[in-house]
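DM from R.C. (forwarded with permission)

"hey, sorry to bug you on a friday — could you get me a structure for this? deadline for the figure draft is monday and I only need the backbone to look sensible"
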Amino acid sequence: DEFVFPPNESPHDFLNRQSCDVVRSCMFQVYRHRNDKNLDPSLAPIPQRIHGDPDLFSTDTQANRAANSVYIKPNIVRPSKRICFLPGHHQIEGNPQASPESYVGAHWQMADPSIAIARRMERKARVSERNRARQMGWQHFDITVDKIKEECERHLDDPVIDALSSFTEIAVQNLPSMGLNGKSEGKDSPASDIIGRVFHIGDMHKFDLLQHQICLLPPRRTVPFMSWRQHVPFAMLLVDFLKPRTLVELGVHYGDSYCAFCQAVAELRLGTSCYGVDTWKGDPHASFYGPEVLADLAAHHDPLYGSFSHLIQSTFDEAVQHFPD
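My reply, with the result:
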């Protein structure tokens, strides 16, 4: 529920000049204004909700939310430094050098009653006793539908947040800026070395959903959490686009997305080797669980996809031995 962008330039240009290992994102709390339209998933999210609390640095803890200043987060990191996030992803281990520049963004937990009620009540329902004891996820402990509605109503006349109204589409195009001659001023995209395909501006206008009907198939496996299910058509579409030789998902849990990948591979008859890696034990942030989660997944997965897919119960580091490249 966090959307971030670099002010007035593309992510490529912003990150390309950074010498530090961490970039912070300054995220404002946004709410639906009384004049806002309903959310449209086909449009960029940030311009749809630009009203909210402009006091980014407030240290006042709210009744069911942390203080605004907690949402100035070190959440963009250099992968090669293997930086570890602490539970909640508001802090990182150690003290790596942070850039003096920041991304700008919006925290969408309360961006619209249509999503706030469903998501927050879902999170309240799955808070573990261990997390309660450690006060992890405390903002959901006592939340109710009425409290969510009341908070949204209090913010119907919030001001425009200028930093968010500066958003432009260049902020979502992770491409070098184009020079006067129309050629890229940056280096070739590393994507060309990995998959042999480079995205070009304008390609999106050629996209025809009817040519990729795999993503219109109903998924064979679903779990009760709607927020985990909504990306399944896109998972199937990715398989159709990329037609990978090997597919690995790190963090499978209930297997909604992983089984969607496998279903697409089977339907398209691709011959892709698939691997799902997870300890199937949980973690301190999402809570722990027993062997029944993996058993339920395997009962669905093995008869349908066992000929080309493997569930590997291990940590990510331990699983590396399965992949020589």
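R.C.: lifesaver. The longest strand covers residues 98-107.
me: no worries. Residues 2-172 form one domain.
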